[in-house]
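We were asked to recover a plausible sequence for a given structure. The inputs and outputs are reproduced exactly as logged, with field labels preserved.

PROBLEM: sequence recovery
POSITIONS: 167
GIVEN STRUCTURE:
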């Protein structure tokens, strides 16, 4: 019975983030923009970051996605704002391991995003859950000078930045 109550709590938190996502919208001044899509189900995210020094000061996202994708993006924003790029990258790797069913001892660092661990039982939904986190990883790689052309751009860049999650 207690497990059922816990499952219901997890579902309610996920539904709340999906229905009322945190950080949905655009930033007035962003340092980086990334667009990523999941061709399997059609989810698309446009992620904007405002980075000062090594710290993520703000984050916003728009796009179309299922409830898991939207909730995950909302939870990711809560987890990484105020973190350094290195810390955000570590959280992204931790999240990826969690939703793939790996044992993660420090999932509490993920905040509400740790509640998406149950996605591991539904392999088709893993890409939905990780879409926003993969976009974040692309931004972090670019900020460290490791991205390839077309992955990410600065706000005034007119190059096409759309990329598939499968790429």
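RECOVERED SEQUENCE:
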């Amino acid at each position: 019975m207690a497990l059922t109550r816990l499952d219901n709590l997890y579902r309610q938190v996920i539904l709340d983030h999906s229905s009322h996502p945190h950080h949905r919208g655009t930033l007035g001044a962003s340092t980086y923009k990334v667009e990523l899509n999941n061709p399997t189900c059609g989810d698309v995210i446009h992620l904007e970051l405002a980075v000062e020094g090594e710290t993520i000061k703000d984050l916003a996202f728009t796009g179309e996605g299922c409830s898991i994708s939207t909730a995950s993006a909302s939870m990711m924003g809560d987890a990484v704002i105020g973190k350094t790029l290195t810390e955000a990258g570590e959280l992204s790797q931790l999240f990826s391991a969690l939703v793939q069913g790996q044992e993660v001892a420090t999932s509490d660092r993920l905040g509400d995003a740790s509640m998406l661990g149950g996605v591991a039982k539904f392999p088709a939904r893993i890409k939905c859950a990780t879409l926003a986190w993969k976009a974040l990883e692309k931004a972090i790689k670019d900020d460290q000078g490791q991205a390839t052309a077309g992955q990410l751009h600065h706000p005034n860049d007119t190059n096409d930045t759309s990329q598939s999650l499968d790429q």
